[in-house]
């Protein structure tokens, strides 16, 4: 049975956790985007302040270090005005490092002296800036800096700014500025934690409320299912009693017709035949008796036929299998062009007593239906047990016995075909299932099954 509450509680809990994580990640991305924009504007403002104040000296310095090799650059010194401006900038702001590249990507100046003279021509930030575009990146503590190919010890925002003599000239170098964003990163992390905690709290309250709703709904559904089960059991009991009562009444009427009326008519016929032999002189009375006797014989046969149709006594006296065998012989006599083949792969004791008359009536209805509605010249009647299922299959093709357990029928709606209504009713009221199919044009396959 499907566990609604367990499924919902697990699925909802996972959904709540996933939602909280996704919201946290979304906030982190938005906050980092805002942080980078803020830090970039701040770095640009700081760099432009320095560059505007010492631009002539910086341009001259870059011209002097544009051609020499790495060894000469490592021993060159920036102009005093530039050095003073950089010291002032680093003392009065969050700037922690500054680099200046010449147009070939060589570090001409760095507050970290070990980097002076290194070749950074493949640095993505330098490449972007030397081509006139500002580049920046946020580097977290103890993570690898892909621009500088080193591990940083602080949370840094690094920005690469092109150095030009004028706005229309190409970049003659690159100015790189590092700012400390530890406080901003820590603030983002704290805010992210608060948001995730708040979202988890809100979603937990919602989860608990919905859990109560689902629990209530489950109880209602289970109560309704219990009511339906009880009503179904009651209907099954009533159906079985009704079917049993109907069969009992039919059996009673059949016995009364066969043992009562038929016997009475037989006695009357016998009496007439005896009295006719005693009457020698009156030809008129003799002829009247002779005319009445065939009528009585026909009436006797009609009564016995009606009694058999109501309840064949051979089911109780001989069993279902001999009765079906006799029925098939009679059917072939009435329809000489139709050959009936039987595949009865069980014994009489394997058939539950309450189902014997039901099976017989379904076979009768099916044979009459096939004779009336199809042009088939062969009929297969197969009765067998497959696992726990007792299955009756009637196929108007009848060439080979199909695998009933694996048979796949393209079903037609028995309710839509009035010709199958009685068979469907008998099978359903006796606790079984009925299926009708038309595997090919003009062909009918009927199957009734019981777990018995």
Weakly predicted, low-confidence segments:
398-409
Helix content: 55-70%
Rg over CA atoms, rounded to whole Å, is 51 Å
- How many domains make up the 3D coordinates? 3
- Separation of termini? 23 Å
Topology:
Layout lengths: L3 H61 L5 H5 L5 H12 L3 E8 L4 E4 L13 H7 L4 E5 L4 E2 L4 E2 L4 E8 L9 E8 L1 H97 L4 H28 L2 H5 L2 H15 L4 E6 L8 H21 L4 E9 L2 E7 L15 E2 L8 H9 L3 E5 L7 E7 L1
Parallel strand pairs: 8-9
Antiparallel strand pairs: 1-2, 1-7, 3-6, 4-5, 6-7, 9-10, 10-13, 11-12, 12-13
Structure description:
The chain is α+β, with helices and mostly antiparallel strands and about 450 residues long. It folds into 3 domains: about 5-180, Beta-Lactamase (2-Layer Sandwich), CATH 3.30.450.20; about 190-285; about 320-450, Heat Shock Protein 90 (2-Layer Sandwich), CATH 3.30.565. The protein is about 60% helix and about 15% strand. The chain has 10 helices and 13 strands. The chain has helices at about 5-65, 70-75, 80-90, 125-130, 180-280, 285-310, 315, 320-335, 355-375, 420-430; strands at about 95-100, 105-110, 135-140, 145, 150, 155-165, 175-180, 340-345, 380-385, 390-395, 410, 435, 445-450. The strands form 3 sheets. The chain has a 6-stranded mixed β-sheet with strand order 8-9-10-13-12-11, covered by helices on one side. A 5-stranded antiparallel β-sheet has the order 2-1-7-6-3, with helices on both faces. Helix 8 (about 320-335) packs parallel to helix 9 and helix 9 (about 355-375) packs antiparallel against helix 10 (about 420-430). It is rod-shaped, with a radius of gyration of 51 Å. The two termini are about 25 Å apart. Mean pLDDT is about 80; it is low at about 400-410.
């Amino acid at each position: 049975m499907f566990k609604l509450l367990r499924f919902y509680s697990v699925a909802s809990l996972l959904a709540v956790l996933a939602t909280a994580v996704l919201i946290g990640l979304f906030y982190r991305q938005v906050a980092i985007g805002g942080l980078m924009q803020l830090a970039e504007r701040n770095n640009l403002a700081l760099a432009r302040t320095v560059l505007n104040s010492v631009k002539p000296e910086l341009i001259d310095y870059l011209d002097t270090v544009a051609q020499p090799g790495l060894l000469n650059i490592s021993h060159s010194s920036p102009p005093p005005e530039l050095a003073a401006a950089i010291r002032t900038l680093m003392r009065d702001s969050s700037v922690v490092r500054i680099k200046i590249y010449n147009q070939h990507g060589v570090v001409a100046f760095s507050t970290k002296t070990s980097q002076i003279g290194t070749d950074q021509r493949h640095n993505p930030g330098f490449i972007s800036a030397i081509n006139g575009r500002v580049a920046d990146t946020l580097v977290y503590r103890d993570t690898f800096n892909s621009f500088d190919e080193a591990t940083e010890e602080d949370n840094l925002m690094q920005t690469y700014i092109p150095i030009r003599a004028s706005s229309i000239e190409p970049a003659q170098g690159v100015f790189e500025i590092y700012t400390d964003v530890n406080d901003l990163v820590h603030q983002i992390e704290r805010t992210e934690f608060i948001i995730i905690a708040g979202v988890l709290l809100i979603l937990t309250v919602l989860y608990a409320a919905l859990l109560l709703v689902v629990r209530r709904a489950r109880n209602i559904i289970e109560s309704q299912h219990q009511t339906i089960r009880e009503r179904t059991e009651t209907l099954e009991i009533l159906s079985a009693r009704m079917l049993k009562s109907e069969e009992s009444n039919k059996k009673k009427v059949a016995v009364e017709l066969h043992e009562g009326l038929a016997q009475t008519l037989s006695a009357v016929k016998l009496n007439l035949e005896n009295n006719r032999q005693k009457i020698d002189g009156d030809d008129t009375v003799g002829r009247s008796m002779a005319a009445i006797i065939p009528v009585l014989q026909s009436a006797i046969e009609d009564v016995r036929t009606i009694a058999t149709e109501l309840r064949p006594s051979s089911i109780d006296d001989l069993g279902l299998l001999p009765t079906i065998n006799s029925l098939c012989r009679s059917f072939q006599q009435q329809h000489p062009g139709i050959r009936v083949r039987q595949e009865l792969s069980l014994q009489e004791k394997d058939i539950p007593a309450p189902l014997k008359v039901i099976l017989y009536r379904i076979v009768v209805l099916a044979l009459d239906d096939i004779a009336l509605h199809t042009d088939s010249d062969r009929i297969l009647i197969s009765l067998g047990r497959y696992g726990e299922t007792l299955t009756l299959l009637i196929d108007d093709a009848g060439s080979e016995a199909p695998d009933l357990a694996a048979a796949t029928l393209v079903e037609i709606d028995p309710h839509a075909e009035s010709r199958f209504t009685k068979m469907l009713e008998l099978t359903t009221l006796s606790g079984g299932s009925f299926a009708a199919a038309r595997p090919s044009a003009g062909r009918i396959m009927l199957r009734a099954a019981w777990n018995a």
